[in-house]
Amino acid sequence: MEPESRYYYSQRLKLHYLVWGDEAKPPLLLVHGTRDHARSWDRTAIALSDRYCVYAPDLRGHGDSEWSLGGDYSIIDYGLDMHALGEAIGRAPYAIVAHSLGGGVALQYAGAFPEKVARIVTIEGLGGLGWATGARKPAHVRMREWVESMRGLEGRKLRVYSSIDEATERMVEANQHLTPELARHLTVHGLRESSGGYTWKFDNFTHAGSPYEFNMEDARDLWNQIRCPILIIWGAESWGARFKHLDLSAFHDYRSVMVERAAHWVHHDQFEEFIALANEFLAE
Fold first, then answer.
1. CATH superfamily of domain region 4-132+213-283
2. Concatenated DSSP letters for 88-141?
3. 86-99: buried (b, 16+ CB within 10 Å) or exposed (e) per residue?
4. For the segment 123-135, what is each residue's pLDDT rounded down to a tens digit?
5. Is the pTM of this model over 0.70?
6. How many CB atoms lie within 10 A of CB 83?
7. Residue 23 CB: number of other CB atoms within 10 A?
8. What is the CA radius of gyration of the chain?
9. What are the phi and psi torsion angles at 180 (to 5°)?
10. Continuous segment of H or E residues that includes residue 122
């Protein structure tokens, strides 16, 4: 099954999304994480398209979406894009399955527009934004560090890979749990041809973030507005597992599950267990 490509606009950016299945069925959004792309969800989309019409966006600066001129890649920008996507599709309320940064974006969207979200599955999507641990830095320090990082990114060159095989090796280095077939699939859809070889589709400025941190006080306020059920999935071998003890009392209706033998990309590392959990939760 091959998805249909569509486009919508947010902040004058032309953004891409994929559609699987019959639009007479209930809508479900799949939202990827940092430096990933919509085709990362292929297995999940196919598994769910018997009951849902599945929509998977490429976040700004990722996949086949446009890069943001000036490097605006904070969570509020992604949240705005999520709302614009929902309006373009016009089928709210949505069930959402989201990974990492995508999970944070989905929760922000659901907190600002609780009437537009029916259910959320967030995979490692609570602690990856840098605000969850440690003392908050003073504003002047954050501003200085952000300015310096942005200036540094201006001089950063895209890495060019001589072949798809070479880029696939880099993909495997990033996630040792991937099968050779899945690693190549993710690589093929994550590359574009460049002079002398291939480069990743994501914008280097997606590393930048914002000096105005999305802090826990703001997070809890948004989380407290969410009224839909939430399933939180962690990978036992992931760096994200250290956030499993976060105070989640701001949520009204949630459950948390730890998946063994899985790192940050739980939906890749233990797909069968992940999809069973998602199916059970979405069917309730």
1. Alpha/Beta hydrolase fold, catalytic domain (3.40.50.1820)
2. HHT--SEEEEEETHHHHHHHHHHHH-GGGEEEEEEES-SSTTS-SSSPPPPHHH
3. bebbeeebbbbbbb
4. 999 854 455 556 7
5. yes
6. 16
7. 11
8. 18
9. -55, -35
10. strand 117-123
